[in-house]
């Protein structure tokens, strides 16, 4: 009897517990949903912290642990489920407001589902505590080809043509790479002759023929950023540089490369006594403008197993570095014609056009841009006019650029279909050399500057920008960047754009030059665009800065920049202001003077505890406001005055706990709101007002 009683008692307890649980699903579902909201919010915070570690590890070339990747995927899955669940429950509440209250079965279902998701989230949080390390070092891969980040503007169809003149010089360089008495090879020639294309071919053949175990290609550009060169080489050879000064990093890099050469040259035990092939490293330094101190970088000079190829527009640079020089010139006439015809198409076979088309003597890259500009023109007078323009274009003082190059690029620019394409093209030269330009920034800047005709909404601006960019790529004035969301400018095209924009449109493009002080400009009063992004400027001049015609000011990624209170006086026409990535940013009071400002970017800024960002609320013409990944703790109530706002970005603002109810409801024109939705559970009802 006692055994029976015990069994009955346990069954009763289980039955009672189950009944209580079912009852709680039914009557306490509101409490369950609130607990789910809090749990989901905390999980999102945890995910953001883990993602930060993942991003840092990825940037350092490390391999993310599979457990971590799997955890992230499951977190994203439960997060989406929680969002969908919340939307479903919210719809049920709305029906209740219309007189169709949630029936007991729905309450029970919502409560049970909420508890199930709470348990799943709790388990994920427990799993997170089990891995403090998210990655491991990636082993360097042998026979590793690293393509250049500076891509050629010559299309793949053109590259498929076998140019005998280029094959000859390629063969000579490949033979020289086998010569143990030659450490440095220099490829020199005017801008536009195809030096980078040739360097890419060298790296490709060196990889395919297994002449080297590691091939690293680095774009150097006019501003020799030794830190960046060190970082790229180290990353692509499979190790991380310490956060020391330049000389310490150079020593570390030098020792690691020598260590790699020494250790990996040691023969490994084998059944047969065959010596292990030497490990060899090829470093290609593309677009070098001044002699590079290899020791300052940390590249072993004249070390067995390490060779260097550099490309430059300036022969003296190659001589200074004691390089074995190979000069690259224009293509022979027949090869030039084959390239031109391949891009322009069959239109050049027209008997009226053919004699005209054969006449220009241009460099390979500019042949492509001219052919791209004229490929759809079947009127012979258009071709005659183009030929005359090429002849009349004045010589330029751009270092390393032939007048024919400038003339051909100017022709391609003039033949663009409309002002929109020309304006977006010139906008691209405001970014640093060899920079992956986000198309979304071109859209936001272009929208703020009113570059697009008959465009009223964010979606329309987005579509128009992609259309314009696509046209510029098809004309070979832009190239695709690291993915479909980015574009790049070939260095010689950027040089042309900077020259043209400075002379004709009063741009000042000083991006990524390592500047430590505000640049001087004789024509400061007439400037319309200023870009000093990605420098190390610490302060602005105390006086003498008045830019009454300035419409775009791009200051992002000057981390230590301090802006004086009266800085924006005299900039009343400013429409686009970009100040992202500034630490300890104190918004100046003169910001309120920018009555015409339409686009304001303050992403990744650190404002500090006592920062006052309420000045932004007085910029009533703002249409785009981006505060992604800032440390702001609350949204000022006067942001409700931004009634023209169309895009509002608050992603990654983990300190924000709420947005005043009146703010979002006032933004009747808001189309794009980017906010971490777990932070936004309280916004759902309010956002319905905007829909």
Protein described:
It comes from Acer yangbiense. Pfam families: NB-ARC. This is NB-ARC domain-containing protein. With about 700 residues, the chain is of the alpha/beta class. Helix content is about 45%, strand content about 10%. β6, α10 and β7 form a beta-alpha-beta unit. α3 packs antiparallel against α4 (about 105-130), α14 packs parallel to α16 and α18 crosses α19 (about 460-475). The longest helix has about 30 residues, at about 65-95.
Task: Compute the average pLDDT.
Answer: 77
* Contiguous runs where pLDDT drops below 50 for at least 5 residues: 3-16, 140-161, 263-268, 273-277, 678-689
CATH fold label of the largest domain: Leucine-rich repeat, LRR (right-handed beta-alpha superhelix)
What fraction, in percent, of the residue positions are helical?
40-55%
Structural class: alpha/beta
Fourth-level CATH superfamily of the largest domain? Ribonuclease Inhibitor
- So what's the CATH class of the largest domain? Alpha Beta
Distance between the amino and carboxyl termini: 68 Å
State the main characteristics:
single chain; 691 residues; alpha/beta; Rossmann fold; 5 domains; 8-stranded parallel sheet; 19 strands; globular; disordered N terminus; disordered C terminus; ADP binding
